[in-house]
Specification:
The complex is a heterotrimer of chains A (319), B (551) and C (212).
Chain A lengths: L15 H32 L16 H27 L9 E8 L2 E5 L5 E3 L1 E5 L3 E8 L4 E5 L4 E5 L5 E6 L4 E7 L11 E7 L1 H11 L5 H11 L2 H5 L17 E3 L5 E3 L2 H9 L22 H13 L7 H4 L2
Parallel strand pairs in A: 1-5, 4-10
Antiparallel strand pairs in A: 1-2, 2-3, 5-8, 6-7, 6-9, 9-10, 11-12
Helix pairs in contact in A: 1-2, 4-7
Chain B lengths: L1 H4 L12 H5 L4 H30 L9 H20 L2 H15 L7 H23 L13 H5 L4 H28 L12 H33 L12 H35 L6 H14 L15 H28 L9 H24 L1 H7 L3 H31 L5 H28 L13 H31 L47 E3 L6 E3 L3
Antiparallel strand pairs in B: 1-2
Helix pairs in contact in B: 3-4, 3-5, 3-6, 3-17, 5-8, 5-9, 5-15, 6-8, 8-9, 9-10, 9-11, 10-13, 10-15, 11-12, 12-13, 13-15, 13-16, 15-16, 16-17
Chain C lengths: L12 H36 L1 H8 L4 H26 L3 H32 L16 H35 L5 H30 L4
Helix pairs in contact in C: 1-2, 1-5, 1-6, 2-5, 3-4, 3-6, 4-5, 5-6
Classes of the chains: A alpha+beta (319), B mainly alpha (551), C mainly alpha (212).
């Protein structure tokens, strides 16, 4: 930053440096090409202005080698940039296995984050430096987008599905969090901060918050309160699939297909139970659509995941 | 030759009064009808933009409320895209010039042409109603479920307005396609057509094939709002992302509808004021068609972070780089057209050179956006806003001004004030860059778009941008004055004041009602510069002094 | 410039007629993109939610759908006859066949309206907030099937209505017209009508027959 005028955001995540390298390379290339073309055109405009004494004889109008040359050069450069960008992009789908899992919920017009230990934050997210963090994103209403410029990450939160974004903060600091998909009246106010703290400070902050109920524990309470245990419990009279060790395992369906019980399957089973009925069971489960909101869904999912200790790896979960 | 002009009635004089204009089937008069409507919408959309930039000069929301600001940017986008940019060059310059350039007396379907204007006006009534009644705040992109389930403005009205003007687009497109196929003068083969005709033809193809998909998207939004059908509603089994696919399947080709005619104009102006043939004519013609085709394949690059699969993102990114190549080829061809020419710098040429600079710059910014990893950072920020304004305003509107000035003598039989025109051109160039270059920086810094308020550290760049907007606005208001003045007091133009090739310059300025007294035949390639007998009459600031230059 | 061309641009009526036909085909192309877009949405959903769509489709009345298909195909026959008569200068015969076409189109709309009413009664029309009662698997995506069914058939019905109105308009405005103008107009309207028929020929199997 010079004279207090900002030119670039901080680089505060493990991905930021590589994205910036690509960005600045592109900047250098476009500046060079732009400068070359400008000089060429201005040069021609001056040299060949009407009435100047420049030499205008010679071949005009077409030069096949030149045209083929610049076409090929453009293609090669374009595909090189494409490959570079795509390679960096594919990393988005593969968070490290031991990432910290945060549940993020967007609604008009605030963000709500829940840590695994149950700590809850509104419009602010504390994360440890040096540890990968995966935020699973859900939306209560319209499409929102989780955007932290300093980390170079962005991901839309879409109603009706769960998306994920991951990052590893590398520098302690206080970074802008913006909603980056227009979501209505207070879209510009829907944001806050991501606070990256060194690990000891993060741990201290966590314990300061008090161990709230973990997401999973709250989910277990909901499980009972909503009556799920009435059918899915051990002593139930109604035959319902047991839920221990379900998450992450294959499930045989009534229509002879097999599906992996990932987040999407569990979510659909709660909201649209007749969609993929397990083999050997009657389609009698009622739908909880409208009876649980996105936040409660996240708690139930956390509980169900906790019943399956050797569940999916994180990257498999992001589907 | 010039003295004969005064003897015959030209198309402006034959038939006076409102009926003769409002019920005309003469393509030249229909072009004027469109010109008037489109100019009005340009300034309406521009006024909204000025209000936005005034608000954004300070970080807080002090001028207008959140709701009003959201309506301002939504209406700015809707009006500028559908009620100005999409029809602009095709419906004004295209309508006027296409028959002239191919040696025809009119378009294939003159009454369809007039009907298309009325459809445009009818649709614009819906848009104006929604503006006056309180506006719509969904953004011009109408994303679901915000637009279907949560927005409170006049969404259905605005959507219906856009739907209706879409028909106007399709009607114009059909007319142009059939005209180019069936009404070319004898000897005018495809590869003797001016590039302007090629680009109008490519634009017409995209209009006819892409606009219906927009119609489908808008109908589904209205059905969902009014009848409660749940195509995009996850609670009813639908998917919000379906809308994005449908919408961008039209809206990406739409940007090519907007830019291709501008490329056509520049391809006419640069050879004329360099007195050199267009470099690589065939490549420019074929790349126009390539842009039209490839433009249909890249819509997903608006959705890299939307939740669509990463593999889809990779494919769309690849195709987006492919579509950049034909545009790059054109830029090289245009630049080389200047070589060994006899270059003069009248207003059309200034605008054309500015187009070259600004379009190239905006196109290079597109490379950043097509690169997946960079787009994740700058998507939905001011970087995107800067990119598309460089192309659409720096490119399209600049080309429109180039064309308007270039063909003004032909359309009106009058010469405008060259001095004022050059001042206005310079003002737009300076104002434009001051407005939009800072927005690239803002985007990289992380300033999201559609934000009414913002963190104070971004203010420096916003102030620069708002200052530029004032200069840009002045640059656009000036032509209204001196072009209007020239209608009454401008010097009379000869048939071919610029010494240009092209069939439109071989008839009077303004042309007679049926364009040509003797239907022309064509026996040479286009852009046969320099040509004997096509001396370029340079203009001095004194309106009735005309000088010859040495060829 | 011949006095009998509509557009001053054409030298002969024959060339103008060819251009008219070409223009109508280009328009058909744009309409194909309109219906194609929604059909593509349908096919993507069908692939994702096969069982729900199959079960839902069974609730549509195959009888009425088939009758409607026969009605519309017959109307295309009468339309083709009208074109044949108009080209040969037999305007009265053309008028009768055009009226038959419009009538058959109206019959189609009445039958479709009846189907809609039946679907509302059965509670399988998730439209205007009406309650949706579906007893098969995956009711949420069955509702999606019906949303698409109503959207697609309504759009088709709208096009059909426009076609009927255009026929009526053509009959009214062609009283004093010369034979070549009449023939040209009937040709143009005929191409449009056949296109609307073809759209139905796609919609019917896609909506009614996918899992029988």
């Amino acid at each position: 930053m010079s004279f207090g005028i900002p030119f670039a955001p901080s680089e505060a995540s493990s991905a930021a440096a590589s994205v910036d390298t690509l960005f600045y390379t592109l900047l250098a290339f476009t500046t060079a090409l732009g400068a070359f073309l400008t000089l060429l055109v201005v040069g021609y405009a001056v040299k060949y202005r009407a009435g100047s004494g420049a030499d205008r004889t010679g071949e005009r109008g077409r030069s096949l080698p030149l045209e083929i040359g610049w076409t090929l050069a453009s293609l090669i450069i374009a595909f090189a940039i494409f490959g570079w960008g795509a390679t960096l992009f594919m990393r988005r789908d593969h968070p490290p296995a031991d990432a910290l899992q945060i549940a993020g919920l967007g609604k008009q017009w605030m963000w709500e984050f829940r840590h695994p230990g149950g700590q809850r934050e509104i419009d602010e997210l504390h994360v440890p430096v040096g540890k990968p963090v995966v935020v699973s994103l859900a939306s209560q209403d319209v499409i929102h987008s989780f955007f932290v410029p300093a980390f170079r990450v962005k991901q839309d939160a879409v109603p009706g599905r769960t998306t994920h974004v991951w990052f590893t903060a590398t520098e302690p600091g206080h970074y802008h969090l913006f909603c980056a998909e227009y979501c209505g009246t207070q879209h510009s106010e829907m944001g806050g901060w991501v606070d990256a703290l060194p690990p000891e400070q993060y741990a201290a902050w966590l314990s300061d918050q008090g161990e709230g109920e973990t997401l999973a524990a709250t989910g277990e309470k909901l499980f009972r309160a909503l009556g799920c245990s009435g059918c899915h419990g051990n002593s139930s009279k109604v035959r319902a699939p047991p839920l221990e060790n379900v998450y992450g395992r294959p499930v045989a369906l009534a229509n002879d297909a097999t599906v992996i019980a990932d987040e999407r399957y569990l979510r659909d089973s709660i909201l649209q139970p007749k969609k993929e009925v397990a083999a050997g069971y009657e389609p009698v489960m009622p739908s909880f659509d409208g009876l649980v909101d996105e936040a409660e869904l996240q708690m139930l999912l956390a509980y169900l995941k906790s019943l399956s200790p050797q569940g999916l790896t994180n990257s498999e979960a992001i589907r | 030759m010039s003295s004969d002009v005064a003897m015959r009635a030209n198309y402006l004089e034959e038939g006076a009064g409102p009926r003769a204009w409002l019920l005309t089937t003469d393509h030249k008069r229909v072009a004027w009808l469109y010109l008037v409507s489109l100019t009005a919408f340009f300034f309406l959309g521009g006024a909204f933009a000025v209000l936005m930039r005034v608000e954004l000069a300070t970080p807080g929301g002090d001028l207008v409320s959140d709701d009003v600001y959201n309506r301002l940017f939504s209406l700015h986008g809707i009006i500028m895209v559908w009620f100005y940019l999409v029809p602009s060059i095709p419906a004004t310059l295209g309508n006027f010039l296409l028959p002239l350039m191919i040696g025809a007396r009119d378009l294939a379907f003159p009454r369809l042409n007039l009907a298309s204007w009325y459809v445009f006006v009818f649709g614009s009534l819906f848009a104006l109603f929604s503006v006056l009644a309180g506006g719509v705040d969904t953004g011009w992109t109408f994303y679901t479920p915000l637009s279907t389930l949560y927005a409170n403005g006049f969404v259905s009205t605005a959507a219906m307005g856009v739907f209706i003007v879409g028909f106007s687009s399709i009607m114009t497109g059909i007319n142009f396609i059939v005209t180019v196929h069936t009404l070319r003068a004898p000897g005018l083969t495809w590869f003797r057509l001016p590039i302007f005709v090629w680009t109008i033809y490519a634009t017409a193809l995209v209009m006819v094939l892409a606009t219906p998909v927009l119609a489908a998207s808008l109908i589904l939004i209205v059905l969902e709002r009014v009848f409660g059908i749940g195509i995009f509603n996850p609670d009813l089994g639908g998917d919000p992302l379906l809308f994005q696919h449908l919408f961008w399947f039209y809206s990406h080709p739409a940007v090519y509808i907007m830019i291709l005619p501008g490329m056509g104009v520049v391809s006419e102006v640069l050879p004329c004021f360099s007195k050199r043939p267009l470099f690589g004519y065939k490549a420019v013609a074929l790349s126009s068609m390539a842009i039209a085709v490839f433009g249909f394949l890249v819509w997903g690059h608006h959705m890299f972070v939307s939740g669509q699969s990463a593999y889809a993102g990779v494919i769309f990114s690849f195709l987006s780089f492919c579509v950049a190549i034909p545009s790059a080829i054109k830029v090289f061809n245009w630049s080389l057209t200047l070589r060994k020419g006899e270059i003069t710098f009248e207003a059309p040429m200034l605008y054309a050179l500015f187009f070259l600079a600004l379009f190239t710059f905006g196109g290079l910014a597109g490379l950043f956006l097509a690169a997946l990893a960079v787009d994740v950072h700058v998507h939905d920020t001011y970087f995107v806003v800067a990119h598309f304004h460089y192309i659409m305003v720096g490119g399209m509107v600049t080309a429109y001004m180039a064309g308007l000035h270039f063909w003004w003598p032909k359309m009106t039989g009058r010469l405008y004030s060259e001095t004022w025109a050059r001042v206005a051109a310079a003002a737009t160039f300076i104002g434009f860059n001051l407005t939009f270059f800072p927005q690239f920086v803002l985007g990289f810094l992380g300033m999201p778009r559609r934000y009414h308020t913002y963190p104070p550290e971004f203010q420096f760049w916003h102030v620069l941008s708002s200052a530029g907007a004032v200069v840009l606005a002045a640059g656009y208001l000036m032509p209204l004055c001196y072009l209007g003045w020239s209608l009454f007091r401008g010097a009379r133009a000869t048939d071919n004041p610029w010494g240009a090739t092209g069939l439109e310059w071989q008839t009077a300025s303004p042309p007679p009602p049926h364009n040509f007294d003797r239907m022309p035949t064509v026996s040479q390639p286009p852009y046969a510069y320099p040509m004997k007998g096509l001396e370029h009459e340079r203009f001095s600031p004194h309106k009735d002094k005309v000088r010859e230059t040495a060829a | 410039m011949s006095a009998s061309t509509q557009s001053v641009a054409f030298d002969t009526p024959a060339r103008e007629k060819a251009a008219d036909a070409f223009g109508m085909w280009v328009f058909a192309g744009s309409e194909a993109m309109l219906f194609g877009a929604i059909m593509l949405v349908f096919f993507v959903a069908r692939v994702s939610y096969g069982p729900a769509f199959a079960a839902a489709s069974k609730h549509l009345s195959l009888t009425l759908g088939a009758v409607n298909t026969a009605v519309l195909i017959t109307s295309s026959l009468t339309m083709a006859l009208a074109h044949f008569h108009a080209d040969a200068g037999r305007w009265r015969a053309a008028v009768w066949t055009l009226m038959a076409t419009a009538l058959l189109g109206a019959v189609f709309l009445v039958i479709k309206g009846t189907e809609y009413a039946m679907e509302f009664h059965e509670g399988i029309a998730p439209v205007l907030g009406a309650p949706f009662a579906f007893s098969g698997p995956d009711p949420v995506h069955a509702a999606f099937f019906f949303s698409l069914y109503f959207a697609m058939t309504a759009l088709h019905g709208l096009h059909l209505t426009c076609g009927i109105l255009v026929i009526v308009g053509l009959l009214a405005l062609s009283r004093g017209a010369d034979p070549s103008s009449r023939a040209r107009r009937v040709q143009a309207v005929g191409l449009y009508w056949h296109f609307v028929d073809i759209v139905w020929v796609f919609l019917f199997p896609v909506l009614y027959l996918i899992n029988r």
